[in-house]
Amino acid sequence: MPKKSTIYEVAHRSGVSTATVSRVMVNGAGASDATRQRVLTAARDLGWVPNGSARSLAVRRTGIVGLLFPELGTSGDSESDSPLFVDQVIRGAERAATSAGNAVLIAATRSAAGRDLAWSLASKVDGLVILAGSLSDTDLASIARSVPVVALATPSATPSARQKLEVVDADNRDGAQQLTRHLVDVHGYRDIAFIAGPARSPDSDQRFIGYRQALQDADLCVPDAPDAHGDFTEEGGERAMHELVVGRDTPPRAVVVGNDQMAMGAMSVLRSRQLRVPGDVAVTGFDDISAARHLRPALTTVRQPMREMGEAAVRMVLERVAEPSAPSRSLVLPTQVVVRRSCGCPAALTTSARKKP
Amino acid sequence: MPKKSTIYEVAHRSGVSTATVSRVMVNGAGASDATRQRVLTAARDLGWVPNGSARSLAVRRTGIVGLLFPELGTSGDSESDSPLFVDQVIRGAERAATSAGNAVLIAATRSAAGRDLAWSLASKVDGLVILAGSLSDTDLASIARSVPVVALATPSATPSARQKLEVVDADNRDGAQQLTRHLVDVHGYRDIAFIAGPARSPDSDQRFIGYRQALQDADLCVPDAPDAHGDFTEEGGERAMHELVVGRDTPPRAVVVGNDQMAMGAMSVLRSRQLRVPGDVAVTGFDDISAARHLRPALTTVRQPMREMGEAAVRMVLERVAEPSAPSRSLVLPTQVVVRRSCGCPAALTTSARKKP
DNA sequence: CGACTTCGAGTAAGCGGTTACGTAGTTAAG
DNA sequence: CTTAACTACGTAACCGCTTACTCGAAGTCG
User: Residue B345's pLDDT is what?
Assistant: First the structure.
């Protein structure tokens, strides 16, 4: 690179002051046409890229929002476990940011080192959106004291933290409830098992609560705890389903699985045991990742508006940046059950059941 | 937010100069233990987050690398067409950046507005990695004159631009060639059609070239142009396959499709015409997106090391940033064919054929 | 035709860090 | 005891851009 040029060189080359150059670049106004042209030409000739740091320093705004998320596949190599969830959120965040003239700075926390990363990110951005699992609750709270933060999918945030924190989440509870109700009402299943995610996953908890609610509404027996736990990966789903099937005399008539990836694992276990889905055992997932549509049978699941969550989160930080003293709000986005074949519905019925009418 | 504090306040509160505070923060050294503690405490008490812009300005380095990619789904709403390719690249880039103490700033160019976005990105980063299709060749070249840039999957870059540009790509040609060879050698197919991507896609071109090479090596008739074109989406694949089948008396024995998403569309068209895959028509894809494994039949395809591409690209920009005058290199990463059922191989054979022995 | 705007453009004071350089005060060496 | 070499820390000059003021010139108006 031929040593970066500065605004001074541009100013000198076009025979004006730096102030004028600056005016021309930021808002075409404040200069005569002739001057503007001279400046523009000089800038182009020099290949001048204004220094963003200097600009940010002067205007006290970086035009960047940070996105912190957890890198789950700690194992490293496995490509399969990529949680599409994060990717969608990233895309949504990018969209909202770009359309507001900002950009998104991303970083993934891997085991432990998260705290430092978070602070280093914080120093470079106007605001932060932090995905569940990236940071401990206390770190989250303390960082939120210094920078506008919105937490994504983190309903667990302690009340005290809530004061400074904004939260965006999907209605996991309602989604699971609608889904389970579909199983009960439409298909008449009564023996419905639940495979949960990791023990301390708020998402998984919410889904379990919704599931229980539906059972209770139907006057069915309501279990205290999930029938099995997985870790949200396909392998975890296999293990959980295996455990579940082995632990019982007869398999359940249906099983509500904590997310799509585990549901995929679960289905393959059933298949290998000669149990037909949905004929013998109906299976449902959660998330509606793109693979869900292509499974055979296609997976009935609950769609989370992942993209929208990313967008909303970014919009909220930006609003907070613009208006730091506004009261902090929370946002719960609706989920939607997507009926496909794995629950026992016919192929034709690809429509999606909407929320409570 | 209780008005951000500065290094001056920290310095004052701990009774030292800003220089000392700075020294403590950057490298724990250069100060006595007692002083260090006082500074650290003061910083924590104030919830001080050093201003990244000021720091970057002073050290002339942002610690950020930009990633520019095209947002393909111009239509907007459709979620399905999200090319997982980009997501993987993002993840790879993030990984390489974070492990080097940097972060990734992402932005997607949507139709046309790309140029401005690119420059605004450029002003905020140390270097840029730009995905194919984000920018016109001329814009690419001109921006590469002012900032270190590595282009991803952009073999088309004009020779002149090459001088300043670094390029990372996957060996699309070789992948397609190996794949086609597999079809010919292992399965003995002779009538093999090709469904290409968008007309001006370098990736698609390379794949077509590899396909032709394999046919030529086998002394089969070598077509001048692809049998049909799609746009890399599932719908595009459906249209292309439809066109292809309708345009011929008998369907081809096998068809090499430009990417996985189109292959999925193609397969559903075949199915709806009562043609069995792979019994009547074998189908292959390209990319190895996660859905490929879950299709029925599972899709034989070519894996691109998308994550590695993202990592490599970021590493290369960072090296260029550190050593601006080094000669620019290019990198072509190997691809790998992944044999599954859609080509006609038995279920058991889930292994992957490696590159030329 | 003098007073009042309006407009184009320059001056210079920051923005919040970093760091070369300078200076006591200590310790080690001669 | 003098001198050299550290060590711990302060001073102040940047880094490159924005923007509140200023100011002269040109246009407006009663």
Answer: 94
CA A4, CA B147: separation in Å to the nearest integer?
8
Identity of the residue in A49, A103, A146 whose CB atom sits nearest the CB atom of B47: A146
CATH of the domain at A100: 3.40.50.2300
What is the SS3 assignment for B153-196?
CCCCCCHHHHCCCEEEEECHHHHHHHHHHHHHHCCCCCCEEEEE
Separation in Å: C2 C1' and A271 CA: 98
A25 touches strand D (CB under 7 A): yes
Q: Which residue of A47, A95, A101 is in closest CB contact with B146? A: A47
Q: Are residues A189 and A282 in the same domain?
A: yes
Res A224 pLDDT > 90? yes
d(C-alpha B267, C-alpha B258), whole Å:
13
What does chain B come to in residues?
Answer: 357
B308 close to B337: Cβ distance less than 8 angstroms? no
Residue A164 has pLDDT above 50, yes or no: yes
Both A26 and A93 in one domain: the answer is no
Of B55, B103, B295, the CB nearest to A106: B103
In angstroms, the CA B146 to CA B128 distance is: 11
DSSP secondary structure, B275-301, as one string: --TTTT-EEE-SB--HHHHHSSSPPBE
Query: What nucleotides of chain C have any atom within 7 angstroms of a protein Cβ?
Result: 7-12, 14-20
Cβ-defined contact of B105 to A64 (cutoff 8 Å): yes
- B94-146 residue pLDDT tens: 999 999 999 999 999 987 667 889 999 999 999 999 998 888 888 898 999 99
Shortest Cα distance from B220 to chain A (angstroms)?
Answer: 34
CA distance B336 to B302: 5
**Residues B282 and B217 occupy one common structural domain:** yes
Q: Are residues B180 and B297 in the same domain?
A: yes
Residue nearest to nucleotide D12 (CA to C1'): B19
Has residue B346 been placed in a domain?
no
What is the count of structural domains for chain B? 3
Q: Domain residues for B119?
A: 64-170+306-333
| A282 pLDDT more than 50 | yes
Co-location of B286 and B314 in the same domain: no
Contact B98 A82 (CB under 8 A): no
User: Both A145 and A191 in a single domain?
Assistant: no
For residue B38, give the DSSP letter. Answer: H
> Which pair of tokens denotes residue B273?
């015409």
Q: Which residues of chain B have pLDDT under 70?
A: 1-2, 72-83, 112-113, 156-163, 348-357
Q: What is the pLDDT of residues A87-134, one digit of tens each?
A: 889 999 999 999 999 999 999 998 766 788 999 999 999 999 999 888
| H-type alpha helices, A100-152 | 114-122, 137-144
Pull the structure tokens for residue A19: 């102030």
CA-based nearest residue to A304, from A351, A340, A337, A262: A337
Look up residue B209 and give its amino acid: I
Which 8-state DSSP code applies to residue B299? P
Looking at residues A209-233, what average pLDDT do you find?
Answer: 95
| Min Cα–Cα distance to chain B from A303, Å | 12
Distance from CA of A226 to the nearest CA of B (A): 27
CB contact under 8 A, A53 and B51: no
* A57 in contact with nucleic chain C (CB within 7 A): yes
Distance CA A104, CA A310 (A): 11
How would you label A198-218 residue by residue, b for 16+ Cβ within 10 Å and e otherwise? eeebbbbbbbbebbbbbbeeb
Are B94 and A108 an interchain contact pair (Cβ–Cβ within 8 Å)?
A: yes
CB distance B230 to B237 below 8 Å: yes
Q: Is residue A143 part of a domain?
A: yes
